[in-house]
Amino acid sequence: LHSGKGRLLSRTESAGVLRGVFRRADRNGDGTLSRTELIVRLREDGELARLLRLPQRVGDADRGAFEAVFQGMDEDTSRGVSEQEFVSYFLRRREAHPSARAAEKAV
After folding, report:
1. What average pLDDT does range 33-58 have in this prediction?
2. pTM, whole model, 2 decimals?
């Protein structure tokens, strides 16, 4: 993740930004993102769509990509994504693919 000034954020700073994105997406405040919450929030949040590399409107043609991302985040296969799973997903992706850092949009 990058700061608004283009500076690459540290792992700790990135985790803080990601927690904020998660909390905005967690519409009912139960600490878990459902598929429905995530799809609804994607429509409203371009930042989230960029982070997940998904379109803001998930249609039939995008279901496979959406499911791959959702299942990639849902480490415990609980059918919901916790804040920790959400943050871990992005930090794992960042470490596994250094080029992904360059592709991420400024936050």
Report:
1. 94
2. 0.79
